[in-house]
Amino acid sequence: IDTIHSTADMFGAKGVWGPEPTQTGVCRLALSDLDKQVKDWFIAETEKLGCTIKVDECGNIFARYPGKYDDHAPTGMGSHLDTQPTGGRYDGIYGVLSGLQVLRTLKENNITPNFPITLVDWCNEEGARFAMSLMASSVWAGVKTKEEIYALKDVYDNETTVLHELKRIGYLGETKCCHKANPLKCHFEIHIEQGPILEELEKKIGVLTGAQAYNWLNIKVTGMSQHTGTTPMEFRRDALLATAKIITGINEVAKQHKGLASIAKLSLLPDVVNVVPGEVDFVLDIRHETDEGLAHIRKDCLAVIEEASLNKAGNGTRLPYTIDDPYPYPATHFDKTLVDVIDQSAAAVVGDDLKHKMYSGAGHDSCATNLVVPTAMIFVPSRNGISHNPEEHTEPEDLELGFRVLLESILRYDAA
Amino acid sequence: IDTIHSTADMFGAKGVWGPEPTQTGVCRLALSDLDKQVKDWFIAETEKLGCTIKVDECGNIFARYPGKYDDHAPTGMGSHLDTQPTGGRYDGIYGVLSGLQVLRTLKENNITPNFPITLVDWCNEEGARFAMSLMASSVWAGVKTKEEIYALKDVYDNETTVLHELKRIGYLGETKCCHKANPLKCHFEIHIEQGPILEELEKKIGVLTGAQAYNWLNIKVTGMSQHTGTTPMEFRRDALLATAKIITGINEVAKQHKGLASIAKLSLLPDVVNVVPGEVDFVLDIRHETDEGLAHIRKDCLAVIEEASLNKAGNGTRLPYTIDDPYPYPATHFDKTLVDVIDQSAAAVVGDDLKHKMYSGAGHDSCATNLVVPTAMIFVPSRNGISHNPEEHTEPEDLELGFRVLLESILRYDAA
Ligand SMILES: NC(=O)NCCC(=O)O
Ligand SMILES: NC(=O)NCCC(=O)O
Known about the structure:
2 copies of one chain form a homodimer. Chain A is of the alpha/beta class. Chain A has helices at 2-10, 33-48, 93-108, 135-140, 146-150, 162-168, 197-201, 239-256, 291-309, 336-350, 365-369, 396-415, and strands at residues 13-16, 24-26, 52-55, 61-65, 75-80, 117-122, 186-192, 205-211, 213-222, 260-269, 279-288, 321-324, 332-333, 355-360, 375-380. In chain A, the strands form 3 sheets. In chain A, strands 3, 4, 5, 6, 7, 8, 13, 14 and 15 form a 9-stranded mixed sheet that branches. A 4-stranded antiparallel sheet of chain A has the order 10-11-9-12. In chain A, strands 1-2 form a two-stranded antiparallel ribbon. In chain A, a hairpin with a 5-residue loop joins β3 (52-55) and β4 (61-65). The longest helix of chain A is centred in the last third of the chain and has 20 residues, at 396-415. The radius of gyration of chain A is 23 Å and the shape is globular. The two termini of chain A are 29 Å apart. The interface between A and B is large, with 70 and 70 residues.
């Protein structure tokens, strides 16, 4: 907990929400100067514990703590140190620093595990600055190529690439970013829930069985820039009016299918008071517990977009649109054996009444690792379900309980 | 026409829409380097004709061509040389350069008018970079103060002020910006229509009797930043969803009242794919032919905003909002005598069949000058009614006809 707050203070504290010095969020965008600083710090801390470090060609850092049978593939654990621009102190960070605390605990107690243990800081999980979530863990898992991610552009300047930033901050490593060349035997991740369920049920530990399917569709609607003062409503081809109909429409679709659909990133051209918007670019984020549910939401959202493009509220001339519709992250089902290890560890730490089987609303690096190695996750409660907001908070006692479940799980797995 | 194209080429050509070199728009934002360059050029050109120059403390340039009775207040004509970011070659520019052509014609023909004639380049008519339209003409007319406009901030960086830019480009003049200290006897302005009416009616000259009332309201809706992957639709306080309902709602309101209502400038916080928008800022542009009509639109738009803020599509917790609701530009009624001068001049140039009495959809510097001196305006057709778009176009023959009506009007007024 001290390390969570001291690293927040050193590397990107932002967004004051209360009078205490720890009551701020963190803004530490992937591959920024602050991300470099926290990566440097992470390497220094793990080296102090006797870890050997590998940085791969996508900026992932693997800190390997030696085991008795040191030529075996290591037990993996990890999460991410990058944050949202309006991020809190816990999202991702809690997972990496709990892993660090596991290694510190082994070291302090002079425990040598049977197998090596590798703690990973996955690069750009958030997808906030470079709009692909689980970026570098997806390359490691083989579902994205390094060329694809190198070309991604900073959403703020639409220019700076991932490759440029990896080089600039010195994290374009030499290790191949690939689960075959640089293997883990499994992947454990602990994370804050970022949603309201554990708190509402008054549970302390979430034992995750999987995560929602989701997809991010990039959509551009083209209208016609015209003067707002001289163009009658019935003559218009207003790309923002069409987008407004899409925003309200997808909201209904999500509710119908008991899933999620959100438009939260949007830009206008030309974005001037008295010019009817000629172009709107936005991202549609859709999610569902099942792959079939996601497919239904997608289909109905596409119908909403098509309907809005007919421009019935304007001059009835169709507004062209483009959709970049990548392959979705499918619903994740975690490894039965690992889920059991976590479930037993949770029972040992908090008892049967305070643990809860659930799935994750958000995507996590574990969704990528699960594609290639046995993976499972632990959740701790988030106050009011708030995340991606400086006010994100988990009680210190709950952070402690979660850490103990992670430690227990790693030791049980190592012993099995 | 040559001057229109040569100045476009020299000072900000942008937005290619056809293969000809003249087929681009112009981007020359108020008080930018390009605006300085065109102002310098304007002064050099008018000085060549024997004009004396005054720059006032709001960046307006007055070029005074001498008359026989040179101690009289001058006949005024003017428009603006700043453009929209996606502007065309004619909006404002056509008015200033037609005025220049009037002066050139007098000079070439050795005509000394009875009274001095002052051509004005009004500063920041568009309100695109600094969001107040008719900015410096409104100060001259006494309805805005120079302190108010000095403090306006560049909408792109939310930092640079008008005062800073006036100083930087050397156009913080010494003449008082005031119709009393620096008077005109009247104000004539020629402008492209920027709408579809003249073209549809197959008329060549619009004789303007007035202009619409309008207002720009700055609105901020506050929601709650939360994770899009973990926050159920029914738990959300989505500021963009509320804004979408406002956008579709005001569209209906405008149609009901046969007026205009547009949202064309909008920004989100935090503007990230997977964070429910916590804040949306936008400008609502409302217009009507009459002041009463504008008041009705305003009232009904405020009701739409209130209704959307109830957040019924989310968790039903009200979303707070703020509205900055400045005093509207009232409906303009131009001076009867000047309208007659233009009407007679138009009859002389194009005949009774090709002129049309109408009012302006857009605001113009003449709406400001009309508050303090007799004012009237001339329109020429806009192809497809398109403006605030690089494709803005008026046929060369129509530009020529308009110029001849302006020249005729100035001479008639001078002779009367
Ligand atoms: N945990 C998290 O915020 N991941 C980012 C990807 C997502 O939006 O689910
Ligand atoms: N003519 C023109 O575009 N003026 C700017 C003010 C307005 O939007 O009407």
